[in-house]
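Researcher: Next sequence.
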Amino acid sequence: MTEYLSPVPFPALDATAPDVYRQFYGMPQFVTIPTADLAASRDFWLAGLGFIDLFTIPGQLTHLRRWAFQDVLLVPGEPAAVPAAMAISFASVLNQLDEVAARCERLVPGCTSGPEEKPWNSVELTIVTPENARVVLTAARPLDPDSAAADRLRAVGFEVPRA
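Model: Next structure:
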């Protein structure tokens, strides 16, 4: 069996984000988001969320990317009238969440909630984009095997070795 190395760093308080991946590959997963204003949506995703414009076909498509396998296609269309109940989550690192929240809030005040600690040992920032997409940046926390968080995971069946 071949070992696969994920672009997502191992959970650590000082984990650093990988560089944006600029190569082309067969995308195993992506989200398509309709927008009434491709340029404005593109600007929010770049300046707020930290994606890059991998390529644009004017008036038809903007292909955004953050880390490897974090692809978003913005397409012309009617955006949702209200924020979606469903969310798309992207891996992040802890030290990015506050910065992304501040950038997004400068662009669209009130569009973020969090960062918030979750019982599954992550910290999550939720952003509602101008297209009413719900985007969650989720950063794994290092797990102390002697912590209450480890005990909660054990209680639901996860094997967490003790220190």
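Model: Strands lie at 31-35, 52-57, 61-65, 71-76, 87-92, 112-118, 122-128, 134-140. The radius of gyration is 17 Å.
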